[in-house]
Amino acid sequence: MIYKSMYKYELAAAAGVSPSTLRNWLINDRQALRAMGVRDNMRLLPPVAVKYICDKYCIHIQDNTNAIR
Predict the structure, then answer these.
(1) How do residues 14-33 score in pLDDT, each as one tens digit?
(2) Would you say residue 27 lies in a domain?
């Protein structure tokens, strides 16, 4: 599966949680995400961060043009 950049609100919707819940999850992974170049105030997550979050939290992205190609 090839991951594309996603906004945090899109990833939250794919996980079935609110954006604030996703932000709370990401607090726990702050160090790992910073190592990937993700800052706390970023709205658009790079593909490597999307993959990491999806793998860790078992989020399945639907195969559509907005999320993956």
Answers:
(1) 999 999 999 999 999 999 99
(2) yes
